[in-house]
Structure formats: C-alpha cells, structure tokens
Design goal:
The complex is a heterodimer of chains A (319) and B (330).
Chain A lengths: L1 H10 L4 H7 L5 H39 L2 E2 L7 E2 L3 H9 L1 H17 L1 H13 L6 H13 L2 H11 L6 H8 L14 H26 L3 H9 L4 H12 L1 H16 L3 H6 L11 H11 L3 H30 L1
Antiparallel strand pairs in A: 1-2
Helix pairs in contact in A: 1-3, 5-10, 5-13, 6-10, 7-10, 8-10, 10-13, 15-16
Chain B lengths: L10 H18 L1 H9 L4 H5 L12 H11 L2 H32 L8 H15 L1 H23 L4 H14 L2 H14 L6 H25 L3 H9 L4 H12 L1 H16 L3 H6 L8 H11 L4 H21 L1 H13 L2
Helix pairs in contact in B: 4-16, 5-10, 5-13, 5-15, 6-7, 8-10, 10-13, 10-17, 11-12, 13-16, 13-17, 15-16
Classes of the chains: A mainly alpha (319), B mainly alpha (330).
C-alpha cells in the first residue's frame, strides 16, 4: 500500500485519480500525499504572489486608471479621458525638458560601463593589498545616493568646493555648476556616474576572472597586441558582464530621482528635472495626482519597451 | 590573466604601478575623504573657509556627540535598522519559497487566479464604483492574456517567472500614488511597517529571480533521491534544499540590506515624522536645519554611510557573489 502511495506522489497529478481507486481508505494524510504535487507549488508561491499582486500589479493598473482623471487627491476624481496626456505632450514645456534630460542621462550614463571596464582592467593584477584596493574602489556604490548627493553638492559649491579650488589653482574662473542651467544636468550625471562606475567595475572584475586563460596565452603566442587582444578576445568573452552592466545602467538612468531631489530639487528653474522627479513634484507637492500619474505612465511606457527587450533575451536563454 | 601580470615587467613598471593605484584610489575617493576630514573640523574652521587646510582643532568627538544629542539622528538610525532587518528576512524568506516553486514545479495558467483575486478584493473596497471598473478591466486583461498565452506555447511557469523579473525594472513612480493611498487607507502611513511591507513586496521580485536561478543550479538528482526515500515536498524543501542555500541566503541578505538601507524615495513617500523616518530621509531633513554647519552634515553623512560600508566589508565575498549571480545567468 505504502509503495503505491509513494508512486502516486511521484507521478503527481497524472495518476492521482487511479490512486484514489486503489486506496480504499482516503484520509487527510493520503489526500495531501496524493495531491501534494499540486498543493506544494501553490503553497510556496502564494505568499510572494499575494504581496506582489497587492503592491506591484494592483498599483500599476490603478495608476493607469488614475491618469485618466483630474484629481487633487482629496475630492472626488473627475474623469477627463486623455486630457492629462494631451496637456503633457502639447502644452507642458517642463515635460519636454524632463524627457530631454532623461535622454541626456541615458546617453552620458553609458560612460559608466566604459569607466568601469577601464578601472577593472587597471586593477586586475595580483599585487600586495589589491583586494583591499578593489573594495575601496567599490565604496561609492555601497553608500546611499543621499550621501553621494550631499558629497557632490559640496564638491561643486561655488565658494569653497573642491572643484573650484582646483579650477582656481590652474587659473580658471570659479563656476557654480548646480545653479547654471547649462551645466546642471551634467553635474548631476557626473555625481551619478561615480557609484554606477564602481558597480560596473565589479561586474567586469568578476567577468575578467572567468576568462579562459588558454585563449589569452594563445593570443599572446600569436603575437596579438594589447588593443587587438582586448577587442578580439577579451571583450567578446566579457559579453555577459557588458550586458548586465548596460542593463543596470539604463535602469539607473531612468530611475534617477534621488540625486536630482537632493542636489537641485529640479532647479534652477526646472532645468534639471527628469520624469521621475517631475512625477513626484506634480503628485506630492502640486497636488495634481492625476497629472502625476500620467507622467508615471509615460515613464512606465518608456521603461516597458526596455523591459520587453530584456525579458525576451533572458527567456530565450531559458529555453 | 588580462592585462598581462605586472610581475612579468621590469622593476620600474612594477613600482610605478604600485604607486599609481594608490594615487588613482586617492583621487577616486577624494570627495569622500573630504567629507571625513570636514566631519572632524570645528565650526570656526568652517566659517573661516578652512575646508582644505590642516584643521585648527580636532572636533571629532564633539561633532559626532552633537549629531547624536542635539538631533534625532539616533532615532533615525534605529528606524533604519527596524526597517532594514525585517525586510531582508521577509523578502529572502518569501523569495526562497517562490524561487523553489518556480525552479522545480510546473504551473498551469490557473495560478492567475491569485493575482486577479488580490486585485479584485482590493479594488472594490478602496475605489468604490470606479474600483468595479478596474476589476472588470483587470479580469478582462487577465482573460485576454490567459487566452493568448494558452495559444502560444509558453509555460505558465515561465510567465510567472517573467512577472517577477519584470517587477524588478518597474519605475517606482508608477507604484507611488496607489501604494501611498493603500498605506493611508490601512492606517500604516508614517509607521515603519509601511516601509517594511512595501519593501518586502517589491524586493521579492529581484530575490525570486536570484533564488530561482540559484536553486535551478542545484543537482536535481538530490531531490529525486529524497522523493524516493519518501520525503514529502515540504520536508524536501526544508531538509534537502534549504541546507544547500546558505551561500545564496547570505549573499541576498547582504544585498537587500544595502538596497533598503539606502532607500530614499519610499522614505519620502510613505513616512514623514521622526518616529518612522530612516536615516536617509532624516539626513536630508537635518540639512535644512543645519545650513552652513557642514561639519555636522558631514558627520551625519558618515554615520549614515557606515552601516552598509561595514556590512560590505564583513560580507564582501557574499556581496560580490550576489551582485553577479543575480543577473549574469541571463
């Protein structure tokens, strides 16, 4: 009897019915045993699924719904269809600024994988104390963006910041990057590049560790010079690291909220706003919840193009 | 090894390399070093503009003591710990179970009942009449997707997994308004629980991806052998799989600790008073009170940065393993 029972548990759903016929005395334990291949997965996935549904799936649906309304967050929402989107795209110049700044973030943030690779190549040696040095290089990624923002606001300070001390030392005029509309976005991006490059560096260091040493030796024997070797042998093998570095960098660029909020609060005159920041400003500070939701939906749409690409790539590897 | 090991080159190159790495490191961490030095300066130095010269006084103890006695910094620090630790434990626990389920079982599309039910149960009480519309839309979308997916040859397991992965990359802003409303409606607004529950839910996406990939890499023969021995599925999970998960559990906990400790956005959205604010939001609030007292702001920043840095140093190997394991398999 017990053996048949085990057999059923092994084969799971397919033979559960037959099992019931054989075992004339179904009780709670055997019911569980017979169906455990169906029950167990549901039990394991349910807690995560419920929380995820409540805090991720439901809010997405709800945000899209709110974005069709004129709502200050207090009185009854008023349905205006695509009105918010029309205002955003046709009338709101600040929205265009935000989009343009996001594009700049995306483009210049791509320096992070490059700097990360350069640092990784520089540090991939085995001299005394190199482990400590590598972890010290990684520091900026571990500390909070709030602290990074504070550090850099201070670094850029026009009266005593290190940047201006350095500029004056080489005989240039002092500048104030955070209150200059032309430089402000670049100044914030530069601050963001600091931790992001550290992150990419670690990814590349791990990648370099996993490279097949025989291929490198073969390349050396064939007389490949450093640059050709890097381009033809090393970089192709680093592709997984590069992919991951670009993925996290794009996400970082589109999520850029903390640094903007800490360093400039979107200023001067809204010139450093990004979509993520504009959304919070509209919804929390201007009490235009419906309008803020519309900005969030736009950001979500941009991101979902990218999410789809990433998912298809990832799931293709699964098959 | 690439680039060529420096030992193969001349003595001159070796010495200059050793000097160069320290110089580059110094420049790389200069902004941080400047903050550290400033945090021990006296206010006289600050007002006189002595930011870069030798400090006239070493006020380390005074400054740090002032940060803790004259401001709620200690409270913020405790809040951060109260938020971060339960989140790390909760997210890792949920994700280990979900990751196990996704790695070893095959789901059918009827699991879609769970999210649809959750959305329905939430929408109607929270949104009233318009909630009903949301429900209809959600059910329609779910049915449409279900129909579409049952046509295409995709397994429900993959779709579930994809859902958790996609959750990782979603911009926070699309969640902000409903999560905030939900938190207010449940009376959790401005408590640490608001942050804990939300963070657990959101981090489950990343953690499940991580755990599922790790469990998928374990030898399947072990599971089969345990089933032959008569272990049920829960014993299997607890006695066979869990002991093998230690490195993954460590790696993931450290990562989540750091992510949550450094969170600023949700601290801004879900809490507001000193009783619940974590240190990231707290420091930004103090910045408004301490205009010009850069020595105190710097000391506060160092206090905020220290726990994740310490965590990283203690658990370095796990941390780096976690960062790369989470995604490289893709």
């Amino acid at each position: 009897m017990a053996d048949i029972q085990k057999q059923d548990a092994l084969q799971g759903v397919a033979t559960a019915g037959d099992g019931a016929a054989v075992l004339q005395t179904p009780n709670a334990a055997t019911f569980f045993n017979r169906h455990q291949m169906r029950i167990a997965p549901i039990v394991f996935i349910t807690p995560a699924m419920i929380l995820f549904s409540i805090y991720v799936i439901y809010p997405i649906v709800n945000s899209i719904w709110i974005s069709f309304h004129d709502w200050d967050g207090i009185v009854e929402p008023y349905f205006i269809g695509l009105g918010n989107y029309e205002e955003l795209i046709v009338w709101d110049e600040a929205f265009l600024t935000a989009i343009w700044n996001n594009v700049q973030w995306l483009v210049f943030f791509m320096l992070a994988p490059v700097i990360g690779l350069a640092l990784a190549l520089f540090l991939n040696q085995t001299v005394f104390g190199i482990r400590l040095i590598k972890s010290l290089f990684f520091f900026p990624f571990v500390i909070s963006q709030v602290v990074v923002g504070l550090v850099f606001s201070w670094f850029y300070d026009p009266s005593f910041g290190l940047l201006n001390v350095a500029l004056q030392a080489i005989g240039l005029d002092a500048i104030s990057p955070l209150s200059n509309e032309r430089y402000v976005t670049f100044a914030i991006i530069a601050a963001g590049l600091w931790p992001q490059s550290a992150y990419c560096m670690i990814l590349y260091l791990t990648g370099l560790n996993n490279i097949n040493p025989e291929q490198i030796e073969a390349g050396r024997i064939d007389g490949a010079r450093s640059w050709t070797m890097l381009w033809n042998i090393i970089l192709p093998q680093l592709r997984p690291a590069t992919f991951l570095a670009i993925v996290v960098t794009v996400i970082g660029a589109l999520r850029s909220f903390d640094l903007v909020a800490i360093m400039t609060n979107g200023g001067p005159y809204g010139s450093s706003t990004v979509l993520a920041f504009k959304m919070v400003r509209e919804a929390l500070f201007n009490n235009r919840v419906g309008y803020g939701a519309a900005v969030a939906v736009m950001l979500f749409l941009i991101m979902s193009v990218y999410i789809t690409y990433f998912l298809t790539r990832m799931l293709r590897a699964e098959r | 090894m690439f680039p060529a090991p420096i030992e193969r080159q001349g003595r001159g190159a070796q010495i200059s390399y050793r000097v160069a790495i320290w110089v580059v490191l110094f420049l790389w961490l200069l902004p941080l070093l400047a903050v550290m030095v400033t945090s021990i300066r006296s206010l006289t130095d600050i007002t006189q503009g002595n930011y870069w010269g030798w400090p006239t006084d070493f006020n380390m103890i005074e400054n740090y003591a002032e940060v803790f006695t004259r401001t709620p910094m200690g409270k913020y620090l405790i809040n951060s710990i109260l938020i971060t630790l339960p989140t790390a434990v909760g997210a890792v626990a949920l994700a280990t179970m979900a990751g196990f389920a996704l790695a070893y079982y095959r789901f059918r599309f009827d699991v879609a009942v769970i999210p649809v039910l959750a959305v329905v149960l939430l929408s109607v009480p929270l949104q009233g009449a318009s909630g009903f519309v949301i429900v209809l839309v959600a059910v329609a979308v779910a049915c449409g997707l279900w129909w579409l997916l049952s046509r295409v040859k995709v397994s429900a397991t993959i779709v579930l997994f994809a859902m958790f992965i996609a959750g990782n990359f979603i911009p926070f802003q699309i969640l902000m308004i409903p999560v905030r409303n939900l938190t207010i409606a449940t009376g959790l607004y401005d408590t640490v629980f608001a942050l804990i529950i939300f963070h657990i839910a959101f981090q489950t996406g990343f953690c499940t991806l991580f755990m599922r990939n790790f469990i998928k890499g374990l030898p399947y023969e072990l599971i089969e052998a345990a089933r032959m021995e008569g272990a049920n599925e829960f014993e299997l999970f607890w006695y066979v799989v869990m002991p093998l998960m230690r490195p993954a559990l460590a790696a993931l906990s450290v990562l989540i600790f750091t992510f949550i400790w450094n969170d600023y956005f949700w601290a801004l959205v879900l809490v507001q008073s000193d009783n619940a604010q974590p240190i990231t939001a707290g420091i930004q609030a103090l910045r408004g009170q301490w205009i010009g007292s850069w020595n105190l702001i710097s000391a506060g920043s160092i206090v905020a940065a220290l726990p994740p840095v310490a965590m990283f140093f203690i658990m370095q190997r796990h941390f780096i393993a976690g960062l790369t394991l989470g995604g490289v398999k893709g």
